[in-house]
Amino acid sequence: MKFLPKVLGLCAAASLTLGMAQANDKPVKIGMITTLSGGGASLGIDIRDGFDLAVKMKNGMLGGVKTEVITTDDARKVGNAKQIATRMIKQDNVDVLTGIVWSNLAMAVVPSVTKAGKIYISTNAGPSALAGKACNENYFNVAWQNDNLHEAMGKYATDQGVKTAYILAPNYPAGKDALTGFKRFFKGEVLGEVYTKLGQVDYAAEIANLRAAKPEAVFFFLPGGMGINFVKQYNQAGLSKTTPLYGPAFSFDEGILKAVGEAALGVHNASQYTWDLDNAANKAFVEAFRAEYKRNPSLYASQGFDAAMLLDSAIAAVKGNVSDTDAFRAAIKAAKFDSVRGNFKFGSNNHPVQDIYVREVVKAGEGVSNKTVGKVFTDHVDAYASQCKM
Amino acid sequence: MQGHYLLMTTLLFLEQTLNGLQQGVMLFLMAAGLTLVFGIMHLLNLAHGSLYMVGAYVCATVTQASGSFLIGVISALGACAASGMVIEILAMRRLYAREHLDQVLATFGIILFFNELVKILWGPQALFLNPPALLNGTMEILPDTPYPTYRLFIIAVGLIVALGLRHLILNTRVGMLIRAGATHREMVGALGVNIDWLYTVVFGLGAMLAGLSGALAGPMLAIQVGMGENILILTFVVIIVGGVGSVRGALVGALLVGLVDTYARAFLPMGLREFMEPANADNVGAAASGMGIYILMAIVLLFKPSGLFQAYKGQS
Hints:
The complex is a heterodimer.
Chain A (H helix, E strand, L loop, with lengths): L2 H19 L6 E7 L6 H17 L3 E2 L2 E9 L4 H13 L5 E3 L4 H13 L3 E4 L5 H4 L7 E3 L6 H12 L4 E7 L2 H13 L3 E8 L7 H10 L3 E4 L4 H12 L8 E4 L5 H7 L7 E4 L8 H14 L5 H19 L7 H10 L10 E2 L5 E13 L2 E14 L10
Parallel strand pairs in A: 1-3, 1-4, 4-5, 5-6, 7-8, 7-9, 9-10, 10-11
Antiparallel strand pairs in A: 2-3, 11-13, 12-13, 13-14
Helix pairs in contact in A: 2-11, 2-12, 3-4, 6-7, 9-10, 12-13
Chain B lengths: L1 H40 L6 H19 L2 H22 L9 H23 L15 E5 L2 E4 H23 L1 H11 L1 H6 L4 H23 L9 H16 L4 H27 L4 H26 L13
Antiparallel strand pairs in B: 1-2
Helix pairs in contact in B: 1-5, 1-6, 1-8, 1-9, 1-10, 2-3, 2-4, 2-8, 2-9, 3-8, 5-6, 9-10, 9-11, 10-11
């Protein structure tokens, strides 16, 4: 008679969901294309984990509707991402796409998604083109426009009285956006502006040039493994004692800090999210994330989580009828969810209007971690919103 | 003022030369193993980068547990030599008679296997490893130019390994068999040499060198899944430039590639700034400097289609 309780349980579960599921027994399908292998894998893994955690906390039902998430690894390759997107749209018939980490992949995939009439929620990449002239009503960014965190760092460096800076970023759309963003708010002189190869591992040549230029500060945007390489090598060259590093949160996320350790102590960086932010939604998120994955959530994890919670609110608002694209889109734009970063709303170009903080790398237990120390921008709007006509 | 500027530029040039040598030495450690395996067994081994990754992971883990970088490196050497020999016996041995395309497919599979294995054993987060305290500083071997001691250490280790390999190949019995195997495989077998055993040893030696390279790279680089794939592409450029199968070619090729890559990255954008808008110069420079080594490869192949050195034809 062992099977009886199981059967009873199933019946109970079935009758519970029956009430909600009547109008929409079709599950909502979400296609997640992200980077799970290779040098940028830690970012995609964080995004996926954040997203999956939200779905799990909602018992597998975003907005009360059974949710199926199809996750596929793009290995940071443009060709893979395009192929996966086509398959998800044509074969799997997903309702929403999300997850891309890198701006060059987003530029290749997003326009074809929105053209096919599907909704795309960006969990990370926010290239300037998609925020400005090439904006689209079906494209939402729940993270930031690429320039934002760099703009905050430019302002912070200026406020700190930095007169000369040397700046570096990888040679891809987000790298250009990063340095443009920094320069938009940095009032001092830029002594050198260097674009390195995406995925570069050795920065000895760049560091030697940088030392010769004698800047007061260095601003760099190198996400993932590139940041680990750079910070280690910068420290070994003895430069961290004389020339402070500034960067966006991408250069000092929790994964990078774990790998560089005390080499990053005292560094300031800008982020829209840190795990120590004081609000109810974030407390619940951090607790659940630590319990599930045994680590602190990074900004990437928060972006994945917020994307799922945003969808949760929108799917609930249209009662699961996501094929009514106009209503679904309006429900997403309303952004009626509690973001773990606190203040959040969409601007006219479907990009966030949000606060940006500066944080410091401090000792925490055995390792090092970020601590929020101040706010640089309140309700910050990106620079391209005015170019977006939709 | 003019003289001062000239001095600064010279110092920077010398510092960049050191950087190029250091990069070249790291490439040599990778290329030496790969070129031996390719030259002697005619085996295209894409999984060479996986052994580099295993070297870095083992070194980081053992160093953290034991507190000694030296023990870490030695363990990495042992682990990589052992994994190399196991791979050879289990997988590679079945591939010698197959076409290169089959070998690419199979060794690509081994890459995926190792990436997943490392992810299961160590998790997706990058590991932490610092240089040992003794080497974790800077030295002013050039006036006014503090240079990371650890990078000097790598240059020294690389050159010692190069000399050791030269001795091994030219002056020992194993080396003689390696040279003979590269040119007259069947004949060596017919003379009663256990070719299977020779191949296993050579493969293990190559794996050990890759592991050394990975272990030494650990303190400077992100130790993470897939770290070997980046360096693998450069390594192939090196052995094509140097001549497939020749260890001397690997050394010359690696130093050339290291220097050309470093000079291009360091000086091309700077040079372009002299006669272009800074923003344009940076863009063009970034794109062009990435091509430097491939242009080098094209030029070498134009004049020497089989690379700079030939593997042990006659005496070399």
